[in-house]
Amino acid sequence: METTSRAGAQGNSGAPGGSTTEGVPAARRTVDGYLRAPFPWYGLDDAFTGPRWLMQVGTAADGTVQHGALGHGDEPTIKTSGEEGPDKERFAVVVTVAASPVRRSGDGTGTLEATSVSSAAWLAGAGLLSQTWPAQLDHSMRDNWLDQQTEVSFELADDLEGPDWSALSLPVDGVPTPFHYRESEYGWVLAGSTGSGVHIGAYGRGMSAYGLGFSVVKDVTTYEG
Question: 80, 62 in Cβ contact below 8 A?
Fold first, then answer.
C-alpha cells in the first residue's frame, strides 16, 4: 500500500463512516466540497435508475479535497449483522480517491502521503464496517469491535494480491476494468483504478456487485443532499 498510514488515506476528515462522513445527518451534507475537488467524481452509471445521494468528502490539513463518497439505493442504517437478511437494504457506495504521489502539503507544513488502489480499498472497507452492528455486541463493546475490524480491513487493503481478494472486471466509462473484490458477512468491497487520475473503491449490501458499472458523474449537484 503506498499510503503508509491510515491517516494518509483518510485525510483530515477521516474515513467514510467516521464523524464527518456517513455519520453526518442528511441535512448537513452539502455539495460544496464535491465542487472543490480537482478530480472527477465517479458513481454508478446510467444503468442504475434508483436514488442517488451525497455523503461527504475527506480533506487534507490544507483543505485540499482528497476523496469522497456518493451513495446509491437505500440510505444504509447501522444494522445488526444478519438482521432480517441482507436484502432489507439495497445500496452501493462509490468512493473516489485522487491518485497522488507523495507531495508537499499546500500550507507547507509537511507532506501528503501517496494514494493507491489500496487507499480506495481501505476507505471502502472502513465504510462498510461503519454500517454494521454485530448481534452479539452491546453499545459499549461496538467501539472495540470496530477498532479491531478496521485494523483487519486496513491489513486486507495492504494485501490486494492475497487470498482474501478475487478478480472482477466491471465497466468504467464503458471500458472493462479490473477490480479487486472480496465478500464478507457484512457485504462486499471492491477497488480499482481508472484512466482519469483517480482510484475507485465501492462497498454495498443487498445489491450485487457483479452487475454494476461506473462512470464519471457529469453533474454532482443531481445527487440529493
Answer: no
Backbone angles phi, psi at 99, to 5 degrees: -80, 115
What string of pLDDT tens digits covers the 225 residues of the chain?
A: 443 334 333 333 334 333 333 344 444 468 999 999 999 999 999 999 999 999 999 988 778 899 999 999 998 776 555 444 445 689 999 999 998 765 555 555 554 566 899 999 999 999 998 877 666 666 677 777 677 777 888 788 999 999 999 999 999 999 999 999 999 888 999 999 998 889 999 999 999 999 999 999 999 999 987
Query: Is residue 68 helix, strand or coil?
Result: strand
Q: Which of these, 184, 215, 170, 149, lies nearest to 17 by C-alpha position?
A: 149
Cα 208 to chain center, whole Å? 16
Beta strands 187-193 and 175-184, pairing class: antiparallel
Dihedral over Cα of 37, 43, 46, 50: its sign:
negative
CA distance 188 to 99: 23
8 Å CB contact between 156 and 126: no
pTM higher than 0.85: no
